[in-house]
Amino acid sequence: MPNNRTGNRFRRPDEIFTLLAKDPLCRLYLFHGDETYFINRAVSCVHKTLGQDVAVDTFYAGEDSLDHLLEAWGSPSLFAKQSLVVLKGAGRLTAADRERLAAEAELRDASHPLVVCLQGRANLSLKFFSVCAKHGFVAEFRSPFVSQIPGWAQRFARERGVSLN
Questions:
Q1: Alpha-carbon gap, residue 1 to 50, rounded angstroms
Q2: Which residues contact 151 (CB under 8 A, 6 or more apart)?
Q3: Contact, 40 vs 118, CB < 8 A?
Q4: Between vectors from CA 91 to CA 87 and to CA 96, what angle results, nearest 5°?
Q5: What is the residue-averaged pLDDT of the chain?
Q6: CA dihedral 8, 122, 69, 37 (to 10 degrees)
Q7: What single-letter DSSP state applies at residue 33?
């Protein structure tokens, strides 16, 4: 699947969520940036794309074993039709862990995606993150500018069926 990025063009969160809803599944998703709410919402979009019966396994870099993540990634669930593996805190991955993940990513397909979340900016020149950029869907979520917050709050409220004065 071709990469969704065009050069260094930054996409607004709404554009990213639209792409996630309509594009076919990727084997890798890398969501990074300063806005945790948008990162979590992007993970939810991938979850929705997989359907209703999805087992989600969440791992935390630096806390959970990479072997357990690799075992879960691509293994069918006993309790659900689909499985989704989410890796949070990817900024804490060691160089050796990034190498292992990059090697494994080459062997995986889109039927069992891995979603990688990183607080802050991802260095796309590092091995695993460059594989995500080459073979997956990469999105950066920046904090909104002060002038954008009222419109964002109105959309947020409208999505929940309420209005703001």
A1: 17
A2: none
A3: no
A4: 85
A5: 88
A6: -90
A7: E
The side-by-side arrangement of strands in the sheet containing 137-141 is: 54-60, 82-88, 114-119, 28-33, 137-141
Q: Where are the alpha helices (DSSP H) in the chain?
A: 13-22, 36-50, 66-72, 95-105, 127-135, 149-159
Contact 43, 115 (CB under 8 A): yes
CA distances to 27, 105, 118 from 38, rounded to whole Å, are 20, 24, 12
Q: Looking at 35-39, 40-44, 94-98, 146-150, which range is the least confident one?
A: 146-150
3-state secondary structure at position 28: strand
Q: What is the rounded distance in angstroms from the CA atom of residue 158 to the CA atom of residue 21?
A: 19
3-state SS class at 97: helix
Q: Are 49 and 156 spatial neighbours (Cβ–Cβ below 8 Å)?
A: no
Contact indicator for 28, 118 with CB cutoff of 8 Å = no
Q: Would you give the DSSP letter of residue 53? A: S
Give residue 125's identity as a one-letter amino acid code.
S
